[in-house]
Amino acid sequence: MGFQYKQVLMVGGTAGIGAAMADRLVQEGSKVIVVGRRQDRLDAFVQKHGSDKADGIQFDLSDIDGIDDFVSTTTQKYPDIDCVFLNAGVQRPSILSDPVNMDLGVFHMQITGTNIAIVPAFGLSAYSASKGALNAFVLCLREEIKDSSVKVIELSPPVVQTEIHDYMGAEKGRQFGMPIDAFTDVAYKGIVSGKDQIVIGSIGPADTFNEIVDKRRTAFENMAKLIRAHYS
Questions:
Q1: Contacts for 168 with CB less than 8 Å, ≥ 6 apart
Q2: What string of DSSP letters covers 197-224?
Q3: Is residue 200 helix, strand or coil?
Q4: Which of 26, 55, 166, 227 could form a disulfide with 33 if both were Cys (CB 3.0 to 4.6 A apart)?
Q5: Residue 201's pLDDT is what?
Q6: Start-to-end C-alpha separation, the chain
Q7: How far apart are CA 98 and CA 162, in angstroms?
Q8: Cβ neighbours of residue 70 under 8 Å, at least 6 residues apart?
Q9: pLDDT for the residue 94
Q10: Taking the alpha carbons of 17, 188, 87, 50 in that order, is the dihedral positive or negative?
Q11: pLDDT at 86 over 80
């Protein structure tokens, strides 16, 4: 099975996982519209692939007040979008036991799936909480719209070698985790497999981690059945 979507909105596609997946989806035949903060990288993406296969929109998702206008403008300009890939995110350490050096201005929620949604990471409390929240949201959203034509796919990466870890030092941070090319290959195969939950790698022994993921999904589905039975 190939990638079935023909026009993809890649939110957060100017670096790291988003940029790598955007390149791969263009190579597989989709037109990809990349959303990001840095105009020079958007321009480079379009130049690399050509305007018939790629486009770019400059927008910062932290601009909450501008999101409605962004959505309206984007859907009007690209009415044929059939896939939205939500990938934007940042990772900053937040040690709550060290309030003097803790910047509450960067303690906030972001939206990008990861294995940290299942096993939180010490030193990344806000980041870990956001991933747990996103995973819960995805489970509920998928259940709520399961009878619609919309498919919700969750991609759960391990640590991947990208600039998201530059706070460790660029050289050290970009050697931390799975090589981006290897990740992109595995991720793409997972996406085209038809699965709605793609877990890549594991935190700790794979059997233990995957068992936690599977049992949590089963427990959620059992809860959903109870709720539906109550309201039916």
A1: 176
A2: EEE-S-SS-HHHHHHHHHHHHHHHHHHH
A3: coil
A4: 55
A5: 86
A6: 37
A7: 27
A8: 57, 59, 63
A9: 57
A10: positive
A11: yes
Provide the residue type at 87 as one letter: N
Taking alpha carbons only, the member of 131, 133, 124 closest to residue 96 is: 124
Coil/strand/helix, residue 154 = strand
DSSP H or E segment with residue 85: strand 83-86
How far is CA 163 from each of CA 15, 136, 177, rounded to the nearest angstrom?
7, 27, 11
Closest among 131, 199, 134, 173 to 16, alpha carbons compared: 173
State the residue for tokens 């085209």: 192
The domains found in the chain, sorted by start residue, are 1-88 (3.40.50.720), 90-232 (3.40.50.720)
pLDDT over threshold 70, residue 131: yes
Place of tokens 């660029």: 170
Dig out the tokens for 151 from the structure: 């498919």
- Going by pLDDT thresholds of 50, 70 and 90, the confidence category of residue 89 is low
d(CA 200, CA 115): 8
b/e code 12-33 from CB counts within 10 Å (16+ = b): bbbbbbbbbbbbbbbeeebbbb
Under DSSP, is residue 120 helix (H, G, I), strand (E, B) or coil?
coil
